[in-house]
């Protein structure tokens, strides 16, 4: 579970930004609360703002850290830059991240400071009593790195030679250091449709990729079939079928193709391969996979433009999946952007961040940080009237 993330000098955000999932003691308890050791945390956070304000950039830190900690050692070329950009006016300054999270019954803090081509500082801490003690620290000194560890047995000489554009956790995992596995598992549990360039836009090939992923988990497939049929897409369910194709060289490849199952009121049945279904049905299938995977396994779903592939009337049903224990038994979390202001009628002020760009810099704030805004205020009406900010200037 994510407690909070802090970052600075990242894409359109130059100043420090904190996305806090913590509730404090004032908000009235709701189904979106996670109770943990006397504290409460949000299951769902919505991000609202005008086009170009920086909403996607607000989600990127979680997407970037997920990739960096899990895949950078094998997924980044030795001489490549780190796929992360500082604010255009501060390219010589470092970008900083700090993530506090709870995992396997313990509190952790991960810190990272980078430039475009190298890590300046990376550290992982565990909370012991009231303080955090480091598990490892890695710091750039001249052309090399220093490395200290307590309970992270990566050989010092080897750790100090790890190249500067990859996470030490990712490298340790590739070298089979057992202590790295739980942290890779945590960051791998961040499911997202965001990549370094922004939102991962729908491509027809993604349908096959999603089908191949969910066919390995029968419960996930059943949940996807049920969700697609309930979302009034003209389907009574979906079914995956194995297809074998031979390329020009005679090589055969096997993959799975989803078929939409249809039933008329007169009881007639037929099915269609998803490539004959509407683009909206296909894109909904792709969008729902990271969300349902998060609900199935626990973790965090980071979704950009939630309402882009779903009708706005479906958003309340999706939020209910995260609210109730029978659909969210692992207390998974969701943070998403959307262009549908009606979402302000569904959530409380401590569950909504607004994003606005002023003087070429993005700024984000949580609604309960605004002075004078009451818990029983009509957030939607105030937003539409321009009283909360973060609306287009036309």
Automatic annotation (TrEMBL):
Q: Where is the ATPase AAA-type core domain?
A: 46-345
Query: What InterPro entries is this protein classified in?
Result: ATPase_AAA_core, P-loop_NTPase
GO MF terms on file? Answer: ATP binding; ATP hydrolysis activity
This one is known as AAA family ATPase
């Amino acid at each position: 579970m994510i407690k909070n993330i802090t970052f600075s000098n990242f894409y359109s955000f130059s100043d420090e930004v904190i996305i806090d999932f913590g509730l404090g003691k004032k908000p009235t308890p709701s189904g979106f609360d996670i109770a943990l050791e006397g504290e409460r945390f949000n299951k769902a956070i919505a991000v609202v703002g005008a086009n170009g304000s920086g909403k996607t950039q607000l989600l990127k830190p979680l997407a970037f850290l997920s990739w960096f900690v899990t895949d950078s050692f094998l997924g980044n070329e030795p001489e490549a830059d780190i796929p992360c950009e500082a604010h255009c006016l501060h390219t010589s300054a470092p970008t900083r991240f700090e993530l506090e999270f709870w995992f396997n019954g313990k509190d952790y803090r991960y810190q990272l400071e980078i430039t475009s081509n190298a890590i300046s500082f990376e550290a992982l801490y565990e909370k012991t009593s009231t303080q955090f003690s480091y598990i490892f620290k890695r710091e750039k000194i001249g052309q090399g790195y220093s490395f200290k560890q307590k309970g992270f047995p990566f050989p010092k000489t080897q750790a100090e030679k790890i190249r500067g554009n990859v996470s030490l956790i990712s490298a340790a995992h590739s070298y089979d250091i057992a202590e790295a596995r739980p942290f890779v598992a945590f960051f791998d549990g961040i499911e997202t449709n965001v990549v370094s360039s922004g939102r991962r836009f729908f491509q027809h090939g993604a349908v096959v990729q999603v089908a191949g992923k969910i066919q390995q988990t029968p419960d996930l497939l059943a949940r996807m079939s049920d969700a697609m049929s309930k979302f009034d897409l003209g389907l009574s369910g979906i079914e995956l079928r194995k297809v074998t194709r031979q390329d020009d060289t005679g090589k055969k490849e096997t993959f799975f193709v989803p078929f939409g199952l249809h039933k008329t009121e007169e009881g007639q049945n037929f099915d269609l391969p998803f490539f004959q279904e509407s683009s909206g049905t296909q894109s909904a299938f792709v969008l729902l996979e990271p969300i349902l995977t998060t609900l199935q396994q626990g973790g965090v779903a980071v979704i950009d433009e939630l309402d882009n592939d779903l009708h706005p009337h479906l958003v309340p049903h999706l939020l209910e999946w995260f609210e109730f224990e029978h659909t969210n038994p692992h207390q998974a979390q969701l943070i998403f952007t959307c262009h549908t202001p009606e979402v302000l009628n569904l959530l409380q002020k401590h569950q909504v961040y607004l994003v606005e760009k002023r003087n070429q810099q993005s700024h984000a704030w949580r609604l309960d940080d605004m002075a004078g805004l009451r818990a029983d205020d009509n957030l939607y009406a105030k937003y539409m009237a321009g009283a909360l900010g973060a609306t287009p200037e036309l």
